Amino acid sequence: MTKREFEELRREIRDRQRPLMHPDHPRPMTRRQLLAQGFITSAAMIASPSLFGFFRGHNDAWAQAQQCGVASGGGRVPFLCIDLGGGANIAGSSVLVGGPGGQRDFLSDSAYVKLGLPTDQRPQIVGDENLAGDPVDPTGLRWHPDSAFLKGIRATASVATLTNTDGTVVCARSDNDTQNNPHNPMYGINKAGADGTLVSLIGTNNSDSGGRSVAPMSMIDLSVRPVKVSDPGEAMGLVDTGKLATLLPNSGDAEAVIEAAKRVTDMKLDPHMTEDAVVEQLIRCSYVESQSLAAVSPASLNPLTDPLIVGQANSIFQAADLANRKFEATATVMKMVCNGFAGAGTVAFGGYDYHNGTRATGEERDFEAGMCIGAILEYSARLTPPTPVMIYVFSDGSVASDGQIDNTADQTVNGRTVPGGGGKGVWRGDNSGTSAGFFLVFDPTGRPPLTDPSRQQIGFYRSGNGSIETGATVVSNNVDVLAEWVVLNFLAIHGDEAQIDTTLPGHGLAAGGPVSDLIAFQKLPSLP
Q1: Residues 310, 330: Cα–Cα separation, whole Å
Q2: Considering the domain boundaries, does residue 58 fall inside one?
Q3: How far apart are CA 319 and CA 228, in angstroms?
Q4: Among 110, 176, 222, 249, which is 20 to 30 Å from 298 by CA?
Q5: Burial class of residue 317 (count of CB atoms within 10 Å of its CB; 0-12, 13-18, 19+)
Q6: Are 131 and 160 in contact (CB under 8 A)?
Q7: CA quadruple 106, 108, 109, 114: dihedral sign
Q8: 130, 143 contact by CB (below 8 A)
Q9: Counting beta carbons within 10 angstroms of the beta carbon of residue 215, is it exposed (0 to 12), middle (13 to 18) or buried (19 or more)?
Q10: pTM, rounded to two decimals
Q11: In the chain, % of residues over pLDDT 90
Q12: How many domains does one find in the chain?
């Protein structure tokens, strides 16, 4: 594909992903409103690691001084967030939601209509599937078989990978189209031990959370504020050593110069100083980190040169796929996180406020989000050695249908079948009462073991009106606690759920009963 053809394809994709205007919404004014409706994607700046990131408070700085060294990842599972800005549909038409008995405690006909499913597409009629699509295997997170998310996941992830993947849906309310949902658990994930060899956290947006939704105030630690990384150039810029790399003939020379500068500094600093010892040690540590950056080749961070991602017949993405900035951003972040360069990352997509009187618009965007989710799972499975991964998918609020049907046909894009309306209900307006989120966990050695079959769904929906039962659990109507729940489950897959009190002091998870009732999975078998 020539550069001109690539740019023409990118323009065509932009036309399909055009921003959404709604007569029942005010004219978008803020950056977050513009992002939700697809007018912008992310800010165009990058904050690289610097020495001054080491200067936290005195106590934190002393801890850094005592533990000087380059982050090793903390032995934690790579963690990624998919932040769908605007209010995407997740419940019912994608991941099944049910009553108090779980996903298969089916809702009423009118409830499913509200969730976008006409009576002839209720799960009681068409059935449901797990990720691998095995009709014989009744276990695993259940999906509507015509889910656009599910189709997208299967477009990029193999059956073998999905067989070793499971997840949990959480029935939890959040407000529509707002920056005030503290959905993003990224700082809590870092407090739980996730770290990277280059940076602690990354995100596709230049925001304190790295995404569109904010982080809970109780978790925020701006000393590890996510670095913006949304394309290959920004990723490679993280390890740019300036003119050293071009002036010196050998690849190891820049690293050697930085190491020599560190030794000179060590000789000049008085080892007997006490009041300023912390600052001195941090200066030494800054050289150690700079040396580690010089040792990493920028090319090793470039997803466009990774044959697992693109460039081969069996790569996860086709070259044409990466003309879509969603896929380019996902490829960049997943390479950084799954290879341990960053401890956790957020990929934020705008334009998910898709109640424009069609179903097809939302189906296409959900399909693309599914492809991104599947790509992360598949990339983790193909690494040598394969690595576990946890993916958390959320959106601010949701949408609802009035039962009108969209029969728009499927379309073919880059050789892939992208779903149209499919005879399902059009999205008519925002509805915070139909919200949900989910997380998926992949383990190379087999499907992650549940703590109890009932934990495949946390909380439940009311059968009669198709809305969340907000009093079902402590997470059902409190987004701050929802983010804490994600951190709890991240700890649990490492067998460290007992650390939740020290990781998030003062959390609200115990307000509704034993915290153990909110844990979906046991420790992953592949972890030591």
Answers
A1: 13
A2: yes
A3: 24
A4: 222
A5: buried
A6: no
A7: negative
A8: yes
A9: buried
A10: 0.82
A11: 70
A12: 1
